[in-house]
Amino acid sequence: MATTSPTPTGATPPTATPSTSAASAPTKHHHTHSSSSSHKSENSPAFALIASALQIALLILFGFVVKYGDSASPSTIAASTTPESLNQYPTFSSAHVFLFIGFAFWQTGLRRFGYSSIGFTFFFAALAIQWAIITNGFWDCVTADSWHNFPLDLLSLARADHAAFSLMVALGAVFGALNTVQMLIVLVLEIFFYSINKFVIEGCLHVVDCGGTLGVFSFAASFGLALSFIATRIPKSCAGSTESAEKKPESEPSEDPERLGSYHNDLFSMLGAIFLWVYFLGFNSALAPYGPAQHRAIVNTVMSLLGSCVVAFAFSQLLRPEHRFRLQDIQTASIAGGVAIGASASMAVFPAGALAIGVITGLCSSASEIFLAPLLFKLRIRDTASTLSTFLIPGFIGAIAATITAGAAKDSVYGDQLVVVFPGHA
User: Fold this and answer.
1) Residue 404's CB: how many other CB atoms inside 10 A?
2) 38-75: pLDDT as tens digits
3) pTM for the predicted model, two decimal places
4) Which residues contact 214 (CB under 8 A, 6 or more apart)?
5) Contact between residue 149 and residue 65 where contact means Cβ atoms under 8 Å apart
6) pLDDT means per 10 residues in the chain (426 residues)?
7) CA-CA-CA-CA torsion for 69, 71, 74, 78, nearest 10 degrees?
8) Which of 338, 333, 326 is nearest to 311 (CA)?
9) What is the pLDDT of residue 236?
């Protein structure tokens, strides 16, 4: 590996540099345009009123249709509590940290939205979890063709965490372009359609997707990019204009200036990426069947993440024209292995297969971040949090890997676990 500068490209020192001011100069008009509606919303009580109304509505719904699950019911005898319910907490807590700390700090790499990424993740995820419990419970009743109160336990909370993460991924594509009231509207709609999508792929098609490769990451990235294309197109004056290129000679002319974080932005974003990387195993295994399948989900996720992490560093330097590390590439590709392995995490992909999925995904994610992300910006399609490179392309690779692995499933490999891992075989 060639000797490189100790400071990766994209992580400038704390002192002001010409490139920093240049990166901000061409976006002056855009900042005024995109922030005017946000300031208008922040200066009025509309957000507070709508958020309060949503919380009151959810409170009423919880009072009528949500009850404790059997494992948490006061009438349940302690000795009859299943091991699954007792051992669910470690994976649930990992998924919680993954969402509220990992993803929140991962988005602080955005130049003007460091505080907002943490605060809004805290608020919107908390509200989304409540709404997801209701929508998931409704479709569970539809699947079972039996109408009853929605049980609340660690498993249903973990499922709600998955739904909330899908919302944050979708909002990541348009972060900074929507005001808070618009984000509340997106919350209600995205969680609703997310639950329908999960009902179709798992309840109707019996697709195995314990880590959310299809139902969480691919769906949310597609939703966010579609929303970006329809509602938040980048103004022509900010996307690849001659004037912009002349004012930022030290950066790529086609790159979104919002993603050019400062030294401290990149530092905290890298911390978030490491949190996501470490706690991804809990997110992918939280909904896996208890026992060997859940154990495999943890092992497979770790192996895939190891492969994508190494490849993220290697190909960030190899594919960049200047052959220097770029933190944005590493933050994106290092966690892509966890996204791709999610659908097949509980399957018998074997260690070498899991590692191969991580390596291939890390390569494709790095190439997407380097070559496709600037292309999206030229097409005026906003992708503030790199949802294409981090979630959509790895999700596509993961879907192919899961299809091949599921198609090769045999009794000789799984034994009695075949119907546990693949309920559709029952």
Assistant:
1) 13
2) 444 456 799 999 999 999 999 999 999 999 988 888 87
3) 0.84
4) 201, 207, 343, 395, 398, 399, 402
5) yes
6) 44 42 40 43 81 97 94 70 69 94 89 81 97 96 90 94 97 88 96 96 93 96 93 62 43 57 82 96 94 95 98 93 87 96 96 97 95 87 90 97 94 89 80
7) 170
8) 333
9) 62
Q: Which residues pair with 348 in a beta bridge?
A: none
Please write down the HEC assignment for all residues of the chain: CCCCCCCCECCCCCCCCHHHHHHHHHHHHHHHHHHHHHHHHHCCCHHHHHHHHHHHHHHHHHHHHEEECHHHCCCCCHHHCCHHHHCCHHHHHHHHHHHHHHHHHHHHHCCCCHHHHHHHHHHHHHHHHHHHHHHHHHHHHHHHCCCCCEEECHHHHHHHHHHHHHHHHHHHHCCCCCCHHHHHHHHHHHHHHHHHHHHHHHHHCCCCCCCCHHHHHHHHHHHHHHHHHHHCCCCHHHCCCHHHHHHCCCCCCCCCHHHCCCHHHHHHHHHHHHHHHHHHHHHHHCCCCCCHHHHHHHHHHHHHHHHHHHHHHHHHHHHCCCCCCEHHHHHHHCCHHHHHHCCCCCCCCHHHHHHHHHHHHHHHHHHHHHHHHHHHHHCCCCCCCCHHHHHHHHHHHHHHHHHHHHHCCCHHHHHHHHHHHCHHHC
The token pair at 352 is 């070498």
Interatomic CA distance for residues 116 and 321, integer angstroms: 33
Pairwise CA distance, residues 371 & 363, whole Å: 12
**pLDDT tens digits for range 253-299:** 456 666 666 778 888 899 999 999 999 999 999 999 988 999 999 99
Q: Looking at the DSSP assignment, which residues form a beta bridge with residue 9?
A: 326
Closest listed residue to residue 129, CA positions, set 96, 171, 176, 98: 96
398-403-407-412 Cα dihedral, nearest 10 degrees: 20
Q: How far apart (Å, rounded) are the C-alpha atoms in residues 399 and 403?
A: 6
Confidence at residue 385, expressed as pLDDT on a 0 to 100 scale: 86
Q: Shortest CA distance to 177 belongs to which of 127, 241, 110?
A: 110
